[in-house]
Amino acid sequence: MRILHTGDWHIGRKMNGLDLIEDQSYILEQLMHEIENSDIDLVVVAGDIFDRANPSRQALKLANDTLYRINITLGKPLLVISGNHDSRERLNYGSEWFKATDFHINTSLDQAHIPVTIGDTDFYLLPHIEVLEARNYFKDEDIVSHQHAYDKILEKIYGQLDQEKTNILVGHLYLSDSVASDSERPLSMGLSEAVSEETFSAFDYALFGHLHHPFAVDSEKSFYSGSLLKYSFSEHKQPKGCRIIDTDKEKVSFIPLEPRHDVVVYTGDYEEVANGNVSFKDNNAYFKFELSNMSYVTEPMSKIKMLYPNTLELKPLIEDRSKELQTVDMATTSDEEIYQSFIETTLDRAVTAFDKTMFKSYFAGEHNETD
Amino acid sequence: MRILHTGDWHIGRKMNGLDLIEDQSYILEQLMHEIENSDIDLVVVAGDIFDRANPSRQALKLANDTLYRINITLGKPLLVISGNHDSRERLNYGSEWFKATDFHINTSLDQAHIPVTIGDTDFYLLPHIEVLEARNYFKDEDIVSHQHAYDKILEKIYGQLDQEKTNILVGHLYLSDSVASDSERPLSMGLSEAVSEETFSAFDYALFGHLHHPFAVDSEKSFYSGSLLKYSFSEHKQPKGCRIIDTDKEKVSFIPLEPRHDVVVYTGDYEEVANGNVSFKDNNAYFKFELSNMSYVTEPMSKIKMLYPNTLELKPLIEDRSKELQTVDMATTSDEEIYQSFIETTLDRAVTAFDKTMFKSYFAGEHNETD
């Protein structure tokens, strides 16, 4: 079986206020082309079809048209779960009718242990869940982390797994060995959202959504599809596309898809950029410039936009802080460093002694509710 | 064929700020009982399933569950059009899949002339339309009223009507011979929305939504289903339910459905009501009281609610205006009188000479844009 694995479409997403719907329509067209021409048996969308719980009519139409083309026009079975951005009720609308053409949407924990069988393969569709929800569902107050919650859910699934079949999990979660980008990093500094990859070891494959980097996890069995597009400037170096899993040949390949606009971050000198001395592959890309020597320029954005009309962000580059402003590697950075970087880059001020006390008190475990 | 004709569900409606979703769930249960037990072949919902273009998740769920039960659980073909309250794009979501089980939604003028054939009957599903839309669709600037628009649409349908079959139109519009209530009276004082009943004379039956009174039109072939519930106090005397059309026996009957709460308007004396001297069928009904001798009472609403907890409106009855405050019969009342009544009852002030000048200038044709 040849499975096309995609996810994190985030239809209706905006980037720095810019509506990306045209870009999304364009990239979904590329995806459709892939589905049509790569001898695909089935399509998996691993959550976050929509960017918002209540998508606009335009977003709803694009999703409907896309799902229609995959499932009805091209006749491919289609497996979908809800991500943290989707509204379960809204995504679930009409789903009972969709089943007739092997379009299966699961938004409920209740259905996660009931496999959808396509050919020789059992698919377990596990929507994005919250800890509290699992706690209520299992009536178990001991569930305090995502790891606990998933252990409990999988215990139920593993109890009935048909080993004669190929078993595939579809999920939307944060694997602990993976690296997040700004778009999906949880606000909580702790890692209680993380679930270890081993949790899913009984499956032949585990196909995930949530993290936007398609290589966020390094594994032969677990994969993130990655998002359809670069949805924040922190994703500017990430490849974007879809994955094809050939279960018979045990071959997995990532297929890059060409977007309508690339997302580019450039750090350098204002004059160099404004004078057109820097060459870019596409001047119509969505740019973020961090430029030095800009403080005495009036209306620098207007000038930059004359050359690069789709510039979305322009920031002065403050030399001595330039290093700190680079992308933070979440895997190798401590919580305290991330907190510090958050204050400096987002709040745009220096870290105070008070901040450090607060961090220690709240995030580093010195705070005790029962004191 | 036995057709159950319903419409104007307005799921998600509020009345004086009160969420009616529980009442709607209750009455839809009664409707379901009727569908299940009255040997129905097919269900028609003539528009305004939802009250708002962007329904809440709760409203969406109730609609989904109801449509599912009719179409899948009870296995009845289901014909739905969009009303002026529905969002076409949202209502249309998933509709391609629904067709497989004879659940047909039409939200587009484009599809109105293509009949849905069920047994020996052709159904023409005509969504609510606006004049401007018809003008664009037909590329005809001469279309300036609903009457023009519908003439044009029906010209197209009549050109291909199969006279061997029973032909039924489903529409959502304002028949000129009918009487509107506050809930659906257009804000425009003119009657450019009105369409004559004769327009639909070539059909065996025409099943409408829009007006909330199930007897808003007096005809043997054209019917309004009426709304599911009394959705404003002006509807307090209207029967509510659904209609069954037996096309073989040429028999049409209206089936009243019992709501969870009735809607009651009572005009009288404050003391009589507060002392419990007035007897009502159900003290838990949704009440509107217009009471005299209330001006010196502190917190009259609290006192009234001790007896009638679901009182939604309490107004002082000003004796000498009491007659004017009665329900206005739209059919026999002039536009000027309606305008006057609007100022008095809604704006709660007397009509001034300036108001009268304004009315003459804007509504009575004395105003000329080209002056």
Number of strands of chain A: 18
- Count of all domains of chain A: 3
Q: What would CATH call the homologous superfamily of the largest domain in chain A?
A: Metallo-dependent phosphatases
Oligomer: homodimer
Radius of gyration of chain A: 22 Å
General description of the model:
Chains A, B: GO terms for molecular function: 3'-5' exonuclease activity; endonuclease activity. Chains A, B: Belongs to the SbcD family. Chains A, B: Residues 1-214 form the Calcineurin-like phosphoesterase domain. Chains A, B: This is Nuclease SbcCD subunit D. Chains A, B: Keywords: DNA recombination, DNA replication, Endonuclease, Exonuclease, Hydrolase, Nuclease. The structure is a homodimer of 371-residue chains. By secondary structure, chain A is an alpha/beta fold. Chain A has three domains: 2-256, Metallo-dependent phosphatases (Purple Acid Phosphatase, chain A, domain 2); 261-326; 333-371, no CATH class. The first copy, chain A, has ten helices and 18 strands. Helices cover 26% and strands 22% of the residues of chain A. In chain A, the strands form five sheets. Chain A has a six-stranded mixed beta sheet with strand order 6-5-4-1-14-15. Chain A has a five-stranded mixed beta sheet with strand order 7-8-9-12-13, with no helix packed on it. A three-stranded parallel beta sheet of chain A has the order 16-17-18. In chain A, helix 1 packs parallel to helix 2 (57-73) and helix 5 (131-138) crosses helix 6. Chain A has helices spanning 21-37, 57-73, 88-92, 95-98, 131-138, 146-158, 270-274, 300-307, 335-345, 353-362, and strands at 2-6, 14-15, 18-19, 42-45, 78-81, 103-106, 116-118, 121-125, 166-172, 174-175, 194-195, 205-209, 222-224, 241-246, 251-256, 263-269, 286-292, 311-316. In chain A, helix 2 (57-73) links the parallel strand 4 and strand 5. Chain A binds chain B through residues 53-54, 57-58, 60-61, 64, 68, 71-72, 87, 89-90, 92-94, 96-98, 100-101, 103, and chain B through 53-54, 57-58, 60-61, 64, 68, 71-72, 87, 89-90, 92-94, 96-98, 100-101, 103.
